[in-house]
Amino acid sequence: MALKLSSQLPLPFQKSHKGSQRWPIPHPIPSTNLAGCGCSILPSGVTSLSRRSGGRGVVHAVKEEETLPSALAEADVSKTPSSSSKVVLVIGGTGGVGQLIVASLLSRNIKSRLLLRDPSKAISLFGIQDENIIEVHKGDTRNPSDLDSTIFEGVTHVICCTGTTAFPSKRWDGDNTPERVDWEGIRNLVLALPPTIERLVLVSSVGVTKYNELPWSIMNLFGVLKFKKMGEDFVRSSGLPFTIIRAGRLTDGPYTSYDLNTLLKATAGKRRAVVISQGDELVGEVSRLVVAEACIQALDIECTKGQIYEINSIEGDGPGSDPEKWKELFKAAEAN
């Protein structure tokens, strides 16, 4: 897919193979504003945690700051070779959760590949990176013809965190509706993925199984919960190894004017304790940083394969980026 990128980009991309772009020689550039991608669909007044009988959840509290890996926050990741064999394709990588996922992958020296409607946003957020660390493809999951097989060559893992608003808004311009994004986009992506993918992590929402019940039916007036559930069901029946993360109402961000270094220093404030549940009984809020970390952790934790989790964050200390603590959280949710 040949790209025609705007001449107004801060620096020109260099063309590599079909549909992708190479980053020029690294040097810092200013960031520009970026609207977050992904929707927060819980009612704004719902902030408390509640579980009905049958709901399963666990709180993990340890003395560790919930941030992107701070040890690498000052590192120049553009000059460091990837230390991982993973290649993680991130769909929605410049949105509210996606930008934090990509920044965290960069800090871990995990190679990422981004599928973006507007590749210029990647430079605005993440600066200029070596193509061995990050690669950008122009494409839109709503259009099957954009999902060329070259996009998926060498990809081992996929994180999809696309979304739109629950109610009509400016973000619906250009047919960016829940049906097109949360259902058709997910279906198109799943059909295009090769069977060699080791894990597909999908970010969804709490309440998707209850879109005909109050208060969820109010949020579903334009179908957002119904279409998210349809996307989930398609992933579950695809035969691909998957993990679905259903987020509560999103807090912390989106960080609309941040560059990579600032993203790496973002914190979840006091809401660092992580609550993970199963059964779609969880109600509350969750930091975008917590959702991003949960997605990255789920890539490698074997017990999360084929599982669906609801996730919130509350005041207290959290698991940070410790894989063992996250493994404990996920296992405890399954056991309850």
UniProtKB/TrEMBL annotation:
Domain NAD(P)-binding: 92-300
GO cellular component: stromal side of plastid thylakoid membrane
Gene3D superfamilies, sorted: NAD(P)-binding Rossmann-like Domain
Region annotated Disordered, chain positions: 1-23
Protein name: (wild Malaysian banana) hypothetical protein
Source organism per UniProt: Musa acuminata subsp. malaccensis (Wild banana)
